[in-house]
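Following up on my earlier thread - several people asked me to post the actual chain instead of describing it. Fair enough. Here it is, all 350 residues.
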Amino acid sequence: MAVLSTPLHYLTSVPPVTRYFTLATIVLSSLYLWIWWSAETTYIPYLTLVPGSSLFYPWTFVSSALVEASLWELAFSLIVIPASLRYFERLWGSLEILMFILICVTGPNLIAFAFNWIEYAAIGDADMFLYGMQYHGQMALFTSFLVAFTQIIPEHQVQIFGLFRVRVKRLPMVYMTFSVVMTLFGFQCPYITIQFGWFVSWIYLRFYKRNVTDTLGGVVTYGDRSETFALTSWFPPFLHTPVSALANTVYKIATRLHLVPSSFPQDIESGFSQVPGGARAEAERRRALALKALDQRLAHSSSNSPGQNGPPGQPSRPSPPASAPVTAEQRGSVNEADVADPSGSTESEE
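Reply from S.P.:
Thanks for posting it. Predicted structure:
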């Protein structure tokens, strides 16, 4: 009994969504591999997403993410996805992680479905674009978790294969580059879903994710509008200007159409209201203002203290110690906060 109690205790300690999602992945992947082995066919439209048949099997927009078409894909998913699910389910809660899974699985599949139909309308090869591709697996979900890790621990370093050390915020773009290369070499399915997964997950985390504990004055916030999570942060500096212009234009249109939750621009000057990005952006803003105020006080104190040019006969007091140099981390916090001016500048999406 002692031998069995340890794995049973571990299974019961796993959060419910993580547990059932992992079990569903094992069951549906095993079913797919068994049908493939017994029927000697890889065309299984009721399990995977086939653009030409999925309208007759609408559940495949979700179930296809639970199907891995090979043993190595299944092994990779079982190593990476449950650990990420467990981390975020404990951080966000079961309901929020379930919504995140549904959005980051269904959204990329819908985009891939529409993209294949557009290719078919432009080129006209139904055998290739409608029935020759079967989208499956958890590549889009894996990308979504990388985006979520970038939002929470961007500066954390991880080791890859024990050889390379890379910051977490670089991993999504590395995976995106891999996706672009594979797509250009003709492996559109399923690698293009990596790009769609990055885009859908960033939009959801940027604008729509409900932050239950991220509140100020009892106001619930949505998304993360801080500059450290802006769209331009994913691109090299020479692309910031065109990306920012395009992103701000789309954001203004979406705001006018009420497609994104409204911000809270009122009373920004007082410092007590909500600012874009919730408590995280507000904390960055207040830290930057505090550093600025401290520097001004130290500079004012230094200029008013009597020095060697003071009145004769009066002992000169030692000048106050010079202000401590601002560390690189503090400078990063000031720059990343993108402090709003007292007039309350208009919020941008970039």
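The first helix runs from residue 2 to 13. That should answer part of your original question.
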